[in-house]
Amino acid sequence: MIMTSELAKDSDICKKLVATGCRLRSTHSYLASFLLEEKKYIAKSYWKSYIDILPINFDSIPIFFGAEELKYLKGSFVLEKIADRTVRYHPPRLPLRSACACLTLPHIIPLSPLIVKPL
Questions:
Q1: What does pTM read for this prediction?
Q2: Is the separation of the CB atoms in 38 and 14 below 8 Å?
């Protein structure tokens, strides 16, 4: 079995998200929500083996670079791509969390720009 956005949409947490009327910008938000819910109950999760091998951080991916690393990309088209992705993906985090009370996951450490940050 493969973890996909379609599989995630059929999960209880994503059905709750849909029921709230919360508008998601990307199907990745379903996948992220599903993954976080599975992580919450990791000991019983069918996906435990998969979740256990996921990276903890993405510091080798330019969108997560700090100012020091970004200065080495000056003149590169990558900076424009990073700016575009930052604008597109970062705003949904807090609105998703505040609009959807079903996302009560205080144990979350943000793993990507698509994952809801704790308040």
A1: 0.63
A2: no
Distances (CA, A) of 117 to 15, 32, 65, 68, 100: 20, 11, 18, 24, 13
pLDDT at 21: 79
Residue among 57, 113, 62 at smallest CA distance from 89: 113
Closest CA to 40 of 114, 109, 117, 112: 109
Burial (CB < 10 A; 0-12, 13-18, 19+), residue 34, is: buried
Residues 6+ apart with CB under 8 A from 27: 5, 9
Share of the chain above pLDDT 90, in %: 22
**Quick one: the chain helix, strand, coil %, rounded to 5?**
55, 0, 45
Residue 52's Cβ-side half-sphere holds a number of Cα atoms within 13 Å equal to 9
Cβ–Cβ < 8 Å for 63, 85: yes
pLDDT tens, position by position, 8-33: 999 988 888 888 877 777 788 888 88
